[in-house]
């Protein structure tokens, strides 16, 4: 196309490079999964097979894209975090979102039969939408990660299964409620203490590289937080070697508390 009279058509494309030096989160979310759950008889509110499948697809995405430092999922959504220094696809939003969403979808479909051996997929096939959001500080990123939880889901399905609500009524009932309200609804109506729910459902799933953990207290925690103190600088070659070793580390799925400092303190490379 170069040097032809058609070359100008490229100019209709717009640039969508995401803001430099910000943490990029690409979140994928299952399209119409309320219907898909019904079609394949997912157990409510948490079908273990479906969660394992989401986790397996996310693990494959993180393995294929070493630029992703951590991923976190609940329900039919997964958030993939790209380091603020990431330059993959020159940080073009559409390339990042479509690559992650389509890789995720491919693996979800590919791995379906492993988790649902007796239930073949049929059209309409599962698909995932995606979006990218930039968070300018570590605090913003951690707040974003902390806000995702399974409390809405648990309360919604308790209202339906134990409270006799239909889906519309439950949605309306929960509109505008805060976490404290949902905890209160669960306890007062159904005597459910959300804290006692199984870890996997309550905490969601984290996908990270299984890399050396730092013992708490062996480094200055403040160093990992933006705007507090400059981390002790090591040489570029040392940084590069560390990065290579991390990229080689195996990718694992776990159910850990990502709200507390401990998770991040033990993995300072995630945020530094
Ligand atoms: P949209 O296309 O707008 O995302 P949706 O129907 O997927 O529509 P969501 O808000 O994403 O709407 O809700 C996802 C639905 O899938 C919820 O009802 C949730 O309970 C259900 N779901 C997701 N994962 C599981 C699971 N592992 N077990 C049971 N239900 C699940
Ligand atoms: P849209 O996709 O059209 O922008 P939406 O209402 O589906 O609209 P999302 O951006 O997909 O909004 O969801 C925003 C966040 O709100 C998600 O991270 C999710 O944690 C929370 N959320 C929204 N709907 C639900 C739900 N039904 N159950 C649990 N969490 C929800
Ligand atoms: Mg949505
Ligand atoms: Mg939604
Ligand atoms: Mg969905
Ligand atoms: Mg969802
Ligand atoms: Mg091409």
TrEMBL record:
<dbReference type="InterPro" id="IPR007537">
    <property type="entry name" value="tRNAHis_GuaTrfase_Thg1"/>
</dbReference>
<feature type="binding site">
    <location>
        <begin position="75"/>
        <end position="76"/>
    </location>
    <ligand>
        <name>GTP</name>
    </ligand>
</feature>
<feature type="binding site">
    <location>
        <position position="30"/>
    </location>
    <ligand>
        <name>Mg(2+) 1</name>
    </ligand>
</feature>
<dbReference type="InterPro" id="IPR038469">
    <property type="entry name" value="tRNAHis_GuaTrfase_Thg1_sf"/>
</dbReference>
<keyword id="KW-0479">Metal-binding</keyword>
<protein>
    <recommendedName>
        <fullName>tRNA(His) guanylyltransferase</fullName>
        <ecNumber>2.7.7.79</ecNumber>
    </recommendedName>
</protein>
<keyword id="KW-0460">Magnesium</keyword>
<dbReference type="Pfam" id="PF14413">
    <property type="entry name" value="Thg1C"/>
</dbReference>
<dbReference type="GO" id="GO:0000287">
    <property type="term" value="F:magnesium ion binding"/>
</dbReference>
<feature type="binding site">
    <location>
        <position position="76"/>
    </location>
    <ligand>
        <name>Mg(2+) 1</name>
    </ligand>
</feature>
<keyword id="KW-0808">Transferase</keyword>
<feature type="binding site">
    <location>
        <position position="76"/>
    </location>
    <ligand>
        <name>Mg(2+) 2</name>
    </ligand>
</feature>
<feature type="binding site">
    <location>
        <position position="29"/>
    </location>
    <ligand>
        <name>Mg(2+) 2</name>
    </ligand>
</feature>
<dbReference type="InterPro" id="IPR025845">
    <property type="entry name" value="Thg1_C_dom"/>
</dbReference>
<keyword id="KW-0547">Nucleotide-binding</keyword>
<feature type="binding site">
    <location>
        <position position="29"/>
    </location>
    <ligand>
        <name>Mg(2+) 1</name>
    </ligand>
</feature>
<dbReference type="GO" id="GO:0005525">
    <property type="term" value="F:GTP binding"/>
</dbReference>
<keyword id="KW-0819">tRNA processing</keyword>
<dbReference type="GO" id="GO:0008193">
    <property type="term" value="F:tRNA guanylyltransferase activity"/>
</dbReference>
<comment type="function">
    <text>Adds a GMP to the 5'-end of tRNA(His) after transcription and RNase P cleavage.</text>
</comment>
<feature type="domain" description="tRNAHis guanylyltransferase catalytic">
    <location>
        <begin position="6"/>
        <end position="136"/>
    </location>
</feature>
<feature type="domain" description="Thg1 C-terminal">
    <location>
        <begin position="139"/>
        <end position="260"/>
    </location>
</feature>
<comment type="similarity">
    <text>Belongs to the tRNA(His) guanylyltransferase family.</text>
</comment>
<keyword id="KW-0342">GTP-binding</keyword>
<keyword id="KW-0548">Nucleotidyltransferase</keyword>
<dbReference type="InterPro" id="IPR024956">
    <property type="entry name" value="tRNAHis_GuaTrfase_cat"/>
</dbReference>
<dbReference type="Pfam" id="PF04446">
    <property type="entry name" value="Thg1"/>
</dbReference>
<dbReference type="GO" id="GO:0006400">
    <property type="term" value="P:tRNA modification"/>
</dbReference>
């Amino acid at each position: 196309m170069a040097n032809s009279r058609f070359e100008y058509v490229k100019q209709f494309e717009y640039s969508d490079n995401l803001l430099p030096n910000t943490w990029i989160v690409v979140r994928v979310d299952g399209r119409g999964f309320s219907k898909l759950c019904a079609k394949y008889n997912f157990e409510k509110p948490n079908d273990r097979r479906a969660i394992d499948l989401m986790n397996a697809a996310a693990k494959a995405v993180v393995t294929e894209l070493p630029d992703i430092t951590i991923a976190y999922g609940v329900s039919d959504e997964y958030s993939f975090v790209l380091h603020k220094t990431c330059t993959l696809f020159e940080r073009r939003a559409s390339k990042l979102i479509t690559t992650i969403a389509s890789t995720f979808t491919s693996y979800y479909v590919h791995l379906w039969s492993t988790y649902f051996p007796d239930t073949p997929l049929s059209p309409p096939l599962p698909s995932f939408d995606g979006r990218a959001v930039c968070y300018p500080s570590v605090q913003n990123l951690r707040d974003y990660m902390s806000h995702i939880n399974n409390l809405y889901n648990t309360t919604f399905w308790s209202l339906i299964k134990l409270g006799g609500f239909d889906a519309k009524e439950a949605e309306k009932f929960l509109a505008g409620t805060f976490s404290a309200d949902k905890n209160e609804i669960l306890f007062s109506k159904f005597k459910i203490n959300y804290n006692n729910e199984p870890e996997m459902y309550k905490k969601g799933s984290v996908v990270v590289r299984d890399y050396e953990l730092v013992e708490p207290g062996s480094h200055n925690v403040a160093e990992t937080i933006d705007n507090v103190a400059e981390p002790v600088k090591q040489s570029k070659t040392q940084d590069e070697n560390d990065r290579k070793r991390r990229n080689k580390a195996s990718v694992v799925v776990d159910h850990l508390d990502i709200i507390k400092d401990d998770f991040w303190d033990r993995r300072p490379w995630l945020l530094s």
